[in-house]
Specification:
222 residues, alpha/beta, 7-stranded mixed beta sheet, two-stranded antiparallel ribbon
Length: 222
Amino acid sequence: MKRFEHGGDVWHGNPSEWVDFSSNINMLGCPDFVERALSEAMQEVSFYPQVDMELAIDGLSQMLDVASERILPTNGGIAALDLAITKLRPARVVVVSPTFVEYERIAVVHDIDFVDISMIKGRREIAFPMAELMDEIKRDDMLIICNPSNPTGFGVEQDAMRKVLDLTVEKGAMLLVDEAFVDFCDGLSVRDEISRYANLIIAGSLTKMFAVPGVRLGYLLG
């Protein structure tokens, strides 16, 4: 049986004794304002969260500069990915690899065909495989691009991503952009394209930049 291993499993002994290179968390640690917010929120820990998630949506809207009606908070980034893939149920999941193993795991678990197209060219070159995608993408596919890439750090610039968006529209496919790490890079996010492309979904996570993976904070934009 094929195993899918997620990083961050430091629960063998004392977690604080590990230097963890398996999960890409902000090495500067949790910002002071996030620690204060978590501390203040403990006063309300005995209450259930808002059913309509109005406060969470409003906060995400301000931070991401995205209209509130285009935002769905999720229980972490993986929950966002799982929801998008299983709810939209594409004919195939196509990824640009090497990439986050969870895309394949979700596809396999839900019996969705999986295709990966490598960005590795030879031994030392990384290049976005636009030509290969033009040949491979078919109607009702879901193309998933992690931008910037996990684990290579390769970033697809906005102009190139718009070409990918136009390609998926032409092919009748969906594009899911995983922007879990986008706040580490300027000028890569395609959040501004949400209102222009009905086939675009963005999955995001606050746990990487804020270094709080134990607090499940994710979202979908669409």
